[in-house]
Amino acid sequence: MSDFSELKKSVFAGNITGVKKLVQDALQKNISAKEILNNGLIAGMNDVGEKFKNNQIYIPEVLIAAKAMQAGLDIIKPILVSAGVKPVAKVAIGTVKGDLHDIGKNIVSMMLKGAGFDVIDFGIDTPVEKFVLAAKDGVDVIAMSALVTTSMPSMKRTIEALYKEGLKSKVKTIIGGAPITQKFADEIGADGYTRDAASAANKIKEILNIK
Questions:
Q1: d(Cα 101, Cα 96) in Å, to the nearest integer?
Q2: How far is residue 186's CA from residue 147's CA, in Å, rounded to a whole number?
Q3: Is residue 1 very low, low, confident or very high in pLDDT (cuts 50, 70, 90)?
């Protein structure tokens, strides 16, 4: 299974049983967990992200594929940790205070995990203080989502709080959601903006200067 094509197909199809079996088979063949992660699981989710971005598949297919990818990741994660393999970066993500929408945020979260990021998901209605605490704990990126215009000021307050605490130089911020624009991101001093979930991982790599 050196080309990992079957594993990628199983991730894409959301075949949890198939993913688990192929990951176990690869480990038994002494293929490294890092290779399985990069060439199988992440590559499979990259295919999902590309199709989603081009409107060739939709939210249900993305969620199913992400669950399959996670099933494979759960098997190899202890091996990766013990081998000292570091995640691409650490991201704290949440829908901001005053907003209870989470489908878009959930897809971004899964896409980031699928791209090799360590993700802390705060869920919905996330207060400013929680994001600030995550910055103090050493996350590389704070990702904020808003689906209603009334919650957008919470993004601005979060960035202002990071400046006030002297943390803004240590953590990057990225925002997204239906009412969010690049203009708004520029106005509040966010480091990045992404129009859709499929672009989030690449945008974060861009703002962190990760090749």
A1: 9
A2: 18
A3: very low
